């Protein structure tokens, strides 16, 4: 079966800039979008967890997605997240994505309810029917409590709309399974510290929160591994990025760290919605030091290639 859409390259799950009163700063969202596209990312995701979808109403998520689609204006594909506890909410988000002209939807398992593979597949197929858009699955059992198992994949794979999967289980055996047994569903990296392994197994795309503030460096790894097939260079770039992966994952401060990283680029995204709180001074300093070394190291690697 030929999928109806290809996900290729770096897909950034875009952060949401809030004002102090927790309203959207639409102008700064536009600035983030313009900067990311200018830095060479290949696609954008609106309404992912990095965008704090868990702290928004469905109406807010639809409005942010609409602004993203309109501002992007076809320059790169836009994927709209539909993850929600209620199937009806996911269907509303999916239909809105279709109506606003989004290119695809991101579809996760509903959290907390822990459906069986059959139940989860029927939920996914209901969302698919509502939108009839290309779908990027999102397997993140650490957050949803549910693994998209083989029965699930077999059932949803009958629809050509299920074009890719962002695999975030952390289990390298899942990479092997997906690459070998489900080649009709594009394999996508959703576990940042395994990006090199995903690319070695033929993954053509990477959904990476860190690309919100280091897009060029993430594109460099994709370029080396997927476009050039130069895994020696890729290993050097990945090695330079590993300290960033550790900072992002330490202490459960992923979103706050990503948003401070964007603020470091000159676009203020420091405000996060409850229950999260912004980084303290020590955490900010640690990120700034890691980013400084990372950017310099990868720039040197890139310069060697051009010499």
In short:
The protein has helices at 26-38, 58-72, 87-100, 117-131, 141-144, 150-156, 172-181, 195-200, 215-227, 231-249, 254-264, 281-306, and strands spanning 9-13, 43-46, 78-81, 104-108, 135-139, 162-167, 186-189, 205-207. With 307 residues, the protein is of the alpha/beta class. The model has no long low-confidence stretch (mean pLDDT 96).
Structure description:
- It is a single chain.
- The chain is of the alpha/beta class.
- The protein has a single domain (9-229), classed as TIM Barrel, CATH 3.20.20.70.
- It contains 12 helices and 8 strands.
- The chain has an 8-stranded parallel barrel with strand order 1-2-3-4-5-6-7-8, surrounded by 6 helices.
- Strand 2, helix 2 (58-72) and strand 3 (78-81) form a beta-alpha-beta unit.
- The protein starts with 8 loop residues before the first strand and ends with a helix.
- The relative contact order is 0.13.
- The model has no long low-confidence stretch (mean pLDDT 96).
């Amino acid at each position: 079966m030929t999928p109806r859409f290809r996900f290729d390259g770096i897909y950034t799950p875009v952060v949401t800039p809030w004002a102090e009163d927790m309203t959207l700063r639409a102008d700064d969202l536009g600035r983030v979008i313009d900067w990311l596209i200018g830095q060479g990312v290949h696609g954008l995701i609106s309404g992912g967890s990095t965008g704090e979808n868990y702290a928004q109403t469905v109406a807010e998520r639809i409005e942010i997605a609409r602004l993203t689609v309109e501002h992007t204006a076809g320059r790169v594909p836009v994927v709209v997240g539909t993850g929600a506890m209620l199937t009806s909410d996911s269907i509303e988000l999916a239909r809105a994505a279709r109506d606003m002209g989004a290119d695809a939807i991101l579809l996760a398992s509903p959290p907390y309810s822990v459906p069986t593979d059959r139940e989860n597949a029927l939920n996914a197929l209901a969302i698919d029917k509502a939108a009839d858009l290309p779908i990027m699955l999102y397997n993140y059992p650490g957050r949803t409590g549910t693994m998209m198992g083989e029965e699930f994949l077999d059932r949803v794979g009958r629809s050509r709309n299920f074009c890719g999967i962002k695999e975030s289980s952390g289990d390298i055996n899942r990479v092997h399974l997906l690459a070998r047994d489900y080649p009709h569903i594009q394999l996508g990296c959703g576990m940042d510290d395994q990006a090199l392994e995903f690319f070695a197994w033929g993954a053509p795309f990477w959904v990476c929160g860190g690309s919100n503030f280091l897009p060029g460096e993430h594109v460099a790894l994709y370029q080396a591994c997927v476009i050039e097939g130069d895994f020696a260079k890729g290993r050097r770039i990945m090695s330079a990025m590993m300290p960033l992966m550790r900072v992002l994952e330490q202490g459960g401060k992923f979103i706050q760290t990503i948003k401070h990283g964007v603020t470091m680029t000159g676009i203020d995204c420091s405000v996060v919605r409850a229950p999260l709180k912004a980084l303290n001074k020590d955490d900010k300093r640690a990120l700034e030091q890691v980013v400084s070394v990372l950017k310099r190291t990868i720039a040197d690697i890139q310069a060697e290639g051009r010499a």
